[in-house]
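Note to self: keep these together.
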Amino acid sequence: MSEFTNIVVSGKSGAGKQPRIDVLVEEYGLEQLSTGDIFRNYLGKFNKYRYDGDLEIFWNDDKKQFISDDLIAEKLGTNNQDILLGLKAKYFVEKGLFVPDYITNALFEAFFAKKNYRNQVLDGYPRTPEQSKFLLDLMQKHDSKIDFVLVVDNTDERIISRTIKRRICPKCGKVYHLEYKPPVDGKFCSKCGTEVIQRSDDTEEKIRSRLREFQEKALPALNYLKDQGMPVVTVPGHLENFTSENVRKSVIDEIKKVF
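Structure:
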């Protein structure tokens, strides 16, 4: 059994969070709970339902909110809550709009409940002060807790330089770096053999946009947790000698200073 109940991992996009999350998962027997995976899960369930009607019929434009869940279920032909959540997520994603906190919170809570609100490394959540408040209220409601926030610290320029060299396997999702963790022969996934690609959002312009978003949204979310007395463990996102053991040691050493 893990000595920690749940851990939040925070940091700028491209700071180097995944290798540190891997350490937490392996060292403490936790699972990674990623906001991106949560959205993909519910969007996938809605897509599999194969509804091909207009999503606008579920939205009340005068009140700027969805119609009632009972009406949605009636129009959709199912009251499956996972499919209803997927519909709400898709409505905003399809329009390229920011997904409101109340939708993100609902998706997160439904998925987190399946994990009994325990033994998770929260990746990508919370991202706003409102989500931070929701998370702490959720922990109190279900007699669970967040033990600490692990912040992966890195400079903007290092992040830009490192991220533009990131590659991902389009088949299995394994992540590589052309310098620090190169794929086989510089272009093939070591897990499934598929040729790796650069993500479309790994351009300098989009990276800088994500860095600004961290300052405007994610940093206030982190500060809210700190203001509520949440312990914060800060680890370096850049190591001169990047090896799995050095990453592990840099994380464990900083955690031991606090616990």
